[in-house]
Amino acid sequence: MTADRPVLVTGASGFVGGRVAALLCERGERVRLLVRPTSDRRNLRDLPAEPVVGDLCDPASLDRALAGCRQVYHVAADYRLWSPDPRQLYRSNVQGTRNLLEAARRAGVERVVYTSSVGALGIPADGTPGHEETPVTLADMIGHYKRSKFLAEAEARASAQTGFPVVIVNPSTPVGVGDLKPTPTGRLILDFLNGRMPAYVETGLNLVDVEDVAEGHLLAMAKGRVGERYILGNGNLTMREILEILARITGRAAPTVRLPRPVVLGLGAVSTLASRVTGRSPRIPWEGVRMSGKKMFFDSSKAVRELGLPQTPVETALRKAVDWFRENGYLTRHNGH
Q1: Coil, strand, or helix at residue 111?
Q2: Across 266-274, average pLDDT
């Protein structure tokens, strides 16, 4: 039964937002999508949803998009590890979140789920997985993307502290269907599939099926406690373990050469300096290399316990990603079916 008042999703043209919007439509919600004039709408083509053109930096457009809405999923973010003008990240992620929350309050919205990132959370120095309460400060954030998400999450928490019903979710590293751009992790999978990975950098990631992340958003809306954070993650894996799973799925050999960290730091510095000249995004972003120095391991047991977050096996999620890239023409010709 479709609800009378619509639900707004920001960032629905992106990887996670697209799955959130699709799941809401499947559940019979009346869905409205905030899209920019330049948004890639391929993930939205088949959705019975109402697109509204607007921008997080244009409060008047947000008032129009939110008119009559009862719930908001604020998934939109400027996710770039390199930008020729880092101020754009703060405008979209921090000021944009503030603008949206203020507009949602004006519109009388009943509840907001704000999509943060595990990048805004702390990682224990002893190598154990981080959790929602691991201490962290702005000074711990590497790079402008993480800093902007940390500050944007602070906006969401501050709004909740004033009594506005905001719940925060922190997805880890989603993989699976619909990774159009693709994300940095999607690019890693593609490089493996296309035979463009002669060596690897040892690091660690928490992987999760993007469809579980979407389900986690809806569960946070239904069951999440106001002002609380919930890590939407699943399996903690080293890069070597991820590559071994991809080798099992595809029959391709995993690279065995592990690049020493000083070499990778040097490559990242050169690649990022070159981007200042070309204006194109670096193949090896300096901030990404710096981040890889820490294993991004997290504990999602709070979301499993309180929300019922599903835990699809990571190998299943990686298989979905591989199949989706194959079926949607992302493989170079000699690496096709």
Answers
A1: strand
A2: 55
